[in-house]
Structures are given as C-alpha cells and as structure tokens.
C-alpha cells in the first residue's frame, strides 16, 4: 500500500493499527473476544457502550460486528486516532465520538448519555497514574447503570512477584524481537508514517504536543483495580482473563 492510498483509506489505517498493537499483544483479539463474551453474559446483545480511551475505535468495531444492535460512544483525546475512528464510522448512527481528557474532572459532561450498560477499555488506563485513575473509577461508578459492567484489559503488575515479572518482561521482549521478521511497524514507526500522511500530519503533530511520545502512568496490580472498583461502588470485581503480563478485570455495579 502506498502512503497516499493510506490517507484516504481508513480501513487500511485500522488494519495497520491492529498489526502494530498485536506486536505488543499477540493475544489482543482473544481479550476482545472474552470482553464481548462477558458483555453478552451480563448485559445482553444490545448494550449501550462507552468505549473509554477508544483510540481508533477497535472495541467499537468488534462490538458492532458481533452485536449489530449495540450502540457506542467513543471517548479519547488523541486527534489523530480520533480522525481514523471518525473516518471509519462516518455515517453510522450507532456511533458517536467525543474528544475529552479523562483527567479533566468534567469529562463525563461531554458524553451524550448519563448512563451506560457497559464501559469498556483496553491498553489505555496505564497512561494514567493510580491517583487520577482512582478518581476516574469513582466517576465510572456513577456512569455505569445498576447491573451494568466495567471492563479494563491492560498491563497489571504484581509487586509481590519481582523475579517472575523480570523474567516475563525479558522473555516477552526477546520473543517480540525474534518474531517480528515481516517488517510490522512498531509504535514509533507507525507514528512516523502517520506524520507523513497528508490528512493525518496535522492531527499527529497536535497529539505529540498533547502527549509527547507516550503518556506517563503506572500499572497497578489486579488487586488494586478490583479493590478500587469496589470502593467506587461496584459490587463485584475480578479477573475474567489473564496472560503472563496482562489481565481483563470485570466489575459489576
Ligand atoms: C494504546 S491506545 C489503545 C486504544 C484502543 N483502546 C485499542 O485497544 O486500540 C491508548 C489510548 O488511550 C488514550 N488516552 C490516554 N490518556 C488519555 C486521556 N487522559 N484522555 C483520553 N484518552 C487518553 C490515547 O489517546 C490512546 O488512544
């Protein structure tokens, strides 16, 4: 694919985003599948969903393919990823995108709905430190309806297992270097390509002004997430999927 073809082809940008993310998470589709299994199990096949820190709308994309009667609000701050998301879903009345900073205390005011059946997020909340993340969880306690769910798939590090953590980290990086032989773009290369695209160059420059190369944040443990979600008003919270480095935590209001 040429660079000029990419600029007009949102689906191609989606696919290259997926390949880039899979470089870091080979099991990315598996966690989306489990997430949607749990949506179906707990709130049914026609949910009103908030895709939190949606990026290009990867969760919304899988949601609508599997549950055509679902609706989704995607919220993010990154103008380049949101441009791809908006381009992809243009004309789809089931989908709305909102630009907001999740660290802004008033971000829920920007949403089109005051309550959701499911709030779903992946590979995003490690961009926030624990303190603002706990504040965000408190806000989600107010946004998820009673009986509704919140799910977060992300890196969750157990501070009690430093030797396992170090070995897992080294192994993951070694395997990534060994298996990336087909030239899949990594994070830095993907953004370098976006910066050269005639449509995405402006929004990409703006996202680097907002975030830098990558936002700061930390990766609290699964226990921290479950405890903090219970303190935020969710009745139950536990992992429904885990890998050696990541977990998918599910909380029911
Ligand atoms: C690695 S991407 C993941 C996107 C998507 N969930 C996926 O799985 O492909 C992380 C996302 O978090 C968003 N994000 C990070 N901090 C944010 C903040 N303070 N407010 C809104 N979005 C934020 C970034 O803009 C980015 O789109």
Quick synopsis:
It is built from ten helices and seven strands. It has 253 residues and is α/β, with parallel strands linked by helices.
What does the main sheet amount to? 7 strands, mixed
Give the beta-strand count.
7
| Unreliable sequence segments | 1-7
What fraction of residues sit in β-strands?
15-25%
Q: Give the overall shape, derived from the CA principal axes.
A: globular
Mean pLDDT: 94
Describe the structure.
- The chain is of the alpha/beta class and 253 residues long.
- The chain is built from 10 helices and 7 strands.
- The chain has a 7-stranded mixed beta sheet with strand order 3-2-1-4-5-7-6, with helices on both faces.
- Helix 5 crosses helix 9.
- The longest helix is centred in the last third of the chain and has 18 residues.
- The radius of gyration is 18 Å and the shape is globular.
- Bound molecules: S-adenosylmethionine.
